[in-house]
Amino acid sequence: MESTNIFENKTYDQERALYGINNSLVKNCRFDGPADGESALKEASEITVENCFMNLRYPFWHVNGAKITGTELTENCRAALWYDHNVTIENSTLNGIKALRECEGIILKNSSVSSPEFIWKCKNLVIENTEIKESEYPFFEVDDAKITGLKMKGKYSFQYNSNIEISNSELDTKDAFWHTKNVTVRDSVIKSEYLGWYSENLTLINCRIIGTQPFCYCKNLVLKNCEMEGCDLSFERSSVQAEILGKIDSVKNVLSGSVTADEIGEIIMEEEIVDKTKSSIVTRVSRNIK
């Protein structure tokens, strides 16, 4: 895209400083100052933002078509991108709360994020080689996303998601994947207490899973060639097909399907709660049925 308007080496602090600009390059600019103005680039379209410093609220609302590179969005830059379409963010830092909401067609690459309530109600996402250092409720109500190389630390992530693919990632996040539909995770490490509760069609392949009470109340849960560490009271009231390498600490009240592992520390099947004939639990080394 060849920009017809260039804004370079400027400082803007007024309200709606570059409101509605089109087909423009914004380069080496600072959005900061005593006027403390909001919504600097609201309603802009087909813009390129390079090496800028964003320290004011709500800069990119209702933007249609943008490439943001090498740009810092500080913790004061709250609710930075809302209601946007077709935005690419690369080599940038996003540190303000609620950084993306109700956006569609977002590409986020090679960036660093520290944003509570990050990426809510968004569709059609691509995320590559990005670190989320801290967030609560990231990826809430997200549909249609492909994520690879994500390193994340947070709480309550990926809740009420659908049609998500995740690969080669490290997720350290409590209560992940609750109420999700059609989510697949491959070749990743997931550290999460209470992982995947109430999910439907959740599939994990070649993953390492760490944390207490995973996968309860799941429908059509599939685990292939996964490892489970510190996973007690697993699969309660779930329909599951699981092939586990190594040990599961304990399995409780599987609703239906099969669970196979090298070893299971304890198998708890309470007859007044579940029908044992509807599930198969196989241990290759030893088993203790209670």
What is the secondary structure topology, with strand pairs?
Elements: E1 5-8, E2 11-12, E3 22-27, E4 30-31, E5 45-50, E6 53-54, E7 60-61, E8 64-69, E9 72-73, E10 81-82, E11 85-90, E12 93-94, E13 100-101, E14 104-109, E15 112-114, E16 123-136, E17 143-155, E18 162-167, E19 170-174, E20 181-186, E21 189-191, E22 200-205, E23 208-210, E24 221-229, E25 239-252, E26 256-268, E27 279-283
Parallel strand pairs: 1-3, 2-4, 3-5, 4-6, 5-8, 6-9, 7-10, 8-11, 9-12, 10-13, 11-14, 12-15, 14-16, 15-16, 16-17, 17-18, 17-19, 18-20, 19-21, 20-22, 21-23, 22-24, 23-24, 24-25, 25-26, 26-27
Describe the fold and architecture.
This protein has 290 residues and is mostly beta strands. It contains no helices and 27 strands. The chain has strands at residues 5-8, 11-12, 22-27, 30-31, 45-50, 53-54, 60-61, 64-69, 72-73, 81-82, 85-90, 93-94, 100-101, 104-109, 112-114, 123-136, 143-155, 162-167, 170-174, 181-186, 189-191, 200-205, 208-210, 221-229, 239-252, 256-268, 279-283.
Task: Looking at this protein, list some descriptive labels.
27 strands, 0% helix, eight-stranded parallel β-barrel, three-stranded parallel sheet, elongated, mainly beta
First-to-last CA distance: 67 Å
Give the helix level as a range of percent: under 10%
Tell me the total number of β-strands.
27
Mean pLDDT: 95
Low-confidence segments, ≥5 residues, pLDDT <50? none
Order of helices and strands: EEEEEEEEEEEEEEEEEEEEEEEEEEE
3D shape: elongated
Strand content: over 45%
**Spatial arrangement of strands, main beta sheet:** 17-18-20-22-24-23-21-19
Classification by helices and strands:
mainly beta
Please report the number of helical segments. 0
User: Roughly how many Å is the radius of gyration?
Assistant: 23 Å
Q: What profile does the largest beta sheet have?
A: 8 strands, parallel, barrel
